[in-house]
Specification:
The complex is a heterodimer of chains A (218) and B (253). Chain A is an all-alpha fold and 218 residues long. Chain A has six helices and no strands. Chain A is elongated and about 65 Å long. Chain B contains ten helices and eleven strands. In chain B, the strands form two sheets. Chain B has a six-stranded mixed β-sheet with strand order 7-8-9-4-10-11, with helices on both faces. The chains are: A mainly alpha (218), B alpha/beta (253). Chains A and B meet through helix 3 of A and helix 8 and helix 10 of B. Chain A: Belongs to the PhoU family. Chain A: Plays a role in the regulation of phosphate uptake.
């Protein structure tokens, strides 16, 4: 029965990797939609989010079936618990990418407030986090999971930076208010997205070590 | 922390020259369930039988180290093994009803053995024991029928009632459900959890899920040694020793 369990666990790992890669693609499309004012790409991101949601339900069913069939313990049990928790965070991460895409769509028709350098940088860091997350998951790489946590600190710093920047715009020229507020929300979406990815990294840490450290941020 | 009821210290059991159990030190806490798990031949049953001097009956077996019951060394000179076995009862893998006896006589057999003759007293103990074994309602109207007419699960509960009738402090169980169907198994497991309010239980089981379901602490045996001992939840979610991990997740040789 060990072989059957391994087969199920491998399949669940593959599907979760697929979900991570979908969220990454969604994030990329949303970000390009924003920085290049490309409405089509933004729409494609929103479209992808539906696939992410579907995959969440499918993987959840597979995890429940694996628990029912194999009554896993120890590392196997921690892995499946990790996946169950990760699914929720990944699904939320996809939602935030979709929020970015929706705002990008709204902003696409108007001249940009400025060049979106810091926002693009935030997105880049989160993409790197997702890559590391996939590596940590596929290769049981604890160091990769730990680097995700560090990168999220960068994302938080960039968020602070952009908030200050946008506040300056709003104070200097109230006509920028509406656009700046939208961009504020975009920055907030990236920041939240990063937190969800960080939560998953913390869970992978638990899976690999058996230790639950710190309280994940929502 | 619960009080200690039993404790082994560096317990080694030899079959001739071969040590089937080597240097096991295990605390057994009062009114808890301790499960012993491990692959076939790992020494868990041999260890269990040393806890009430069952090996005394086998001349090739030698026991070294200490087994204490309430701070008394049960292997000390002058200790009567019959008294020990009354305080530390045993339930076996297969139900063991005495075939010629009625349900009632089966339950009170141990009391008769120690000379209890008072009919009222016997009846009182039979009812109490059968209630404890969750069997009273099923058999109260046919106490004088042969026990062998009962189902396997009921017979095993008769065995448990008989063990309880002499009011043991500790109950040793050697795979008590391995010969039973799932429904009877569940009934016995529920019973164990109820029983631990009154009696300390040490159970050997091949069924790891059973250990996970019913026990408070679990000891993992391998090749005559105790590899790991700890709270059941911890052992099944985050075992310390890689050999424990390998065994409970089924990655074992």
């Amino acid at each position: 029965m060990r072989e059957a369990l391994d087969r199920d666990l491998n399949r669940i790992t593959e599907r979760l990797l697929r979900m991570i890669s979908l969220v990454r693609e969604e994030l990329q499309l949303a970000t390009t939609g924003l920085t290049e004012q490309d409405g089509e790409r933004a729409k494609a991101a929103i479209h992808l989010d539906a696939q992410v949601d579907e995959l969440e339900l499918e993987i959840e069913n597979e995890v429940l079936a694996a628990i029912a069939r194999h009554q896993p313990v120890a590392r196997d049990l921690r892995f499946l618990a990790t996946v169950l928790k990760a699914l929720t965070d990944l699904e939320r991460a996809g939602d935030y990418a979709a929020h970015v895409a929706e705002d990008a769509l709204a902003l696409a028709g108007e001249p940009p407030l400025k060049k979106y350098i810091v926002l693009a940088e935030m997105a880049e860091r989160i993409e790197a986090m997702l890559d590391l997350l996939a590596k940590a998951l596929a290769e049981r790489d604890l160091a990769a999971a730990e680097r995700v946590l560090k990168l999220d600190d960068d994302v938080d710093e960039l968020y602070e930076q952009i908030v200050r920047e946008l506040l300056t715009y709003m104070l200097e020229d109230p006509r920028t208010l509406s656009k700046a507020l939208t961009l504020m929300r975009v920055a907030r979406s990236y920041e939240r997205l990063g937190d969800h990815v960080e939560n998953i990294a913390e869970r992978i840490f638990f899976w690999l070590t058996g230790r639950l450290e710190g309280k994940p941020e929502a | 922390m619960e009080a200690l009821r039993m404790e082994t210290e560096n317990l080694t059991v030899y079959y001739g020259k071969h040590a089937g159990v080597r240097g096991v030190s295990l605390p057994v806490y009062d009114r808890t369930i301790t499960a012993l798990i491990g692959p076939s031949g790992c020494g868990k049953t041999t260890f269990l039988r040393a806890l009430n001097r069952m090996h005394d009956l086998n001349p090739v077996v030698r026991v070294e180290g200490r087994v204490r019951l309430d701070d008394e060394d049960i292997y000390a000179p002058g200790v009567d093994p019959v008294v020990i076995r009354r305080k530390v009862g045993m339930v076996f893998q297969r139900p063991t009803p005495f075939p010629t006896m009625s349900i009632f006589e089966n339950v009170v057999a141990g009391l008769r053995l120690v000379g209890v003759r008072d009919r009222d007293r016997l009846r009182e103990v039979a009812e109490r024991s059968l209630r404890q074994a969750a069997l009273w309602d099923e058999v109260k109207d046919r106490l004088n029928e042969p026990a062998v007419g009962l189902s396997g699960g009921q017979q095993q509960r008769i065995s448990i009632a008989r063990a309880l009738a002499v009011e043991p402090e500790v109950l040793l169980m050697d795979e008590p459900t391995s010969a039973l169907d799932p429904i009877s198994t569940q009934a016995i497991e529920d019973l164990l959890v109820d029983l631990k309010e009154q009696v300390t239980i040490v159970i050997v089981t091949h069924n790891m899920q059973q250990a996970a379901r019913v026990s408070d602490r679990t000891a993992f045996f391998l090749d005559g040694e105790m590899i790991e001992f700890g709270p059941t939840e911890q052992l099944f979610t985050n075992p310390t020793d890689p050999r424990t991990e390998a065994y409970i997740t089924g990655r074992f040789g």
